[in-house]
Amino acid sequence: MTLDRRFALTPEALTMMDTIARTGSFAAAARELGKVPSALTYSVRQLEDALDVLLFDRSSRQARLTAAGTELLNEGRRLLAEMDAVANRVHRVSTGWETQLTIAADAVVSRQTLFELCEAFYALRPPELHDGAGPGTRLRLRTEVLAGTTEALMLGSADLAIGLPADTLAPAGIEIRPLGEAPFVYVVAPHHPLANAEEPLTDAVMKQHRSIAVADSAQRMSPITVNIQPGQDVLTVSSMQAKLEAQMIGLGVGFLPEVLVREHVAAGRLVVKQVARQRMTAPLSYGWRSAAAPQPQKAPQGLALQWWLQQLESPTTRSALLLRGGPCPPSEK
């Protein structure tokens, strides 16, 4: 009786193919698998019948794969690796480590520091996982702008949000803590008309020139607009990096995070202008979905989220996220 091809491609059959190809002969593979060569030959013929292909060249005295056999071997190895990965992730979930953790970070948050935290997370070797591997939680980073960061957290698209507006109200199931203040400076290109204008710049003077704005990434919540005056010409771009580039070539002017423009100001690619209004800082917070948040079929607060929240308790880490203060010392993480 011929096996259905869906039932023929078992982990045992794929392992058998891998062993034969690796050892180079049916006899050697049979010894490694603890079988007699005739039983191994019979299993291969069953697999060939189920798939209706020839997997090994019978004219050779060695176990030489056909093109179909090579394809099955390559795909089989990939499938075996994925099976192992799934088994490991299931085990990690049982120990409290989430399968995936989504972090939404506002565009003003330092990516350098965020990636350093990711690196430290991947380097973890939790004692409860006896295989010596990392937690296995897949991190997903989202870049949001203004109300988009809040929306990602409120609608459940993110488990942790870094860079929320400080006045964000926390509904049931959401916890919010202060992150710090991000300083902004008003910058223009060296060849822009405002580069040599008398300081401090008044709102009336700034209004006469095109402003570069980053579009709020919120899709459902009301978008937030900051530092745009009524009647002012505006060029809206999709990212903070695009805003920076637009201002460096003189397409417009506006406020940018001080840490983002620091090296460009030092290199003369941008000029900081003093403005009449008070010094611009953006007080920010971070928030997460707590145990009370409705998350069907998901642990209320997994170990990966707990680790990230522990890092955010450190003033050094919070400062680095807003001021890009270099690598965070391991002791501060």
From TrEMBL:
Pfam families, per the entry: HTH_1, LysR_substrate
Transmembrane annotation, as ranges: none
InterPro entries: LysR_HTH_N, LysR_subst-bd, WH-like_DNA-bd_sf, WH_DNA-bd_sf
GO MF, one annotated term: DNA-binding transcription factor activity
Residue ranges of domain HTH lysR-type in the record: 9-66
Keyword terms: DNA-binding, Transcription, Transcription regulation
Highest rank taxon of the organism: Bacteria
Family in the record: Belongs to the LysR transcriptional regulatory family.
Name the UniProt record assigns to this protein: LysR family transcriptional regulator
Organism from which the protein derives: Scleromatobacter humisilvae
